[in-house]
Design a protein that fits this description.
about 100 residues; mainly alpha; Serine Threonine Protein Phosphatase 5, Tetratricopeptide repeat
């Protein structure tokens, strides 16, 4: 438990430093992914928790490809991340342009 707690604090410290220096976690990369979406795709559960708890991440945000955090977790085979996101109150029935039209999901 101590190692998990310590890694969480280190991760929070790093994110806090970035924010203090003006980092904007809502910026998108060339592919339309935010830092929050990258954390989901990579399965980085500690930063995901921090984005929700400290930085009020939007659980229903859509990346430029129309995928929400839950759809990203499903697409990248991250069941533990999906479970984590659901615990933060995401609406699993929210329709997106991808989930309604089946797009290139």
């Amino acid at each position: 438990m101590y190692a998990i707690h310590s890694s969480r604090e280190i991760c929070k410290d790093i994110i806090d430093i970035l924010v203090a220096q003006g980092a904007d976690f809502s910026l998108e990369d060339r592919c339309g992914q935010t830092a929050f979406m990258h954390a989901i795709i990579s399965g980085l559960r500690t930063p995901i928790s921090l984005f929700f708890e400290v930085y009020s991440a939007d659980a229903h945000a859509e990346a430029s490809n129309g995928l929400t955090p839950v759809l990203q977790a499903i697409r990248h085979f991250k069941p533990r991340v999906m479970d984590q996101i659901v615990r933060y109150g995401v609406d699993l029935n929210k329709c997106t342009s991808v989930s309604c039209g089946f797009g290139d999901f």
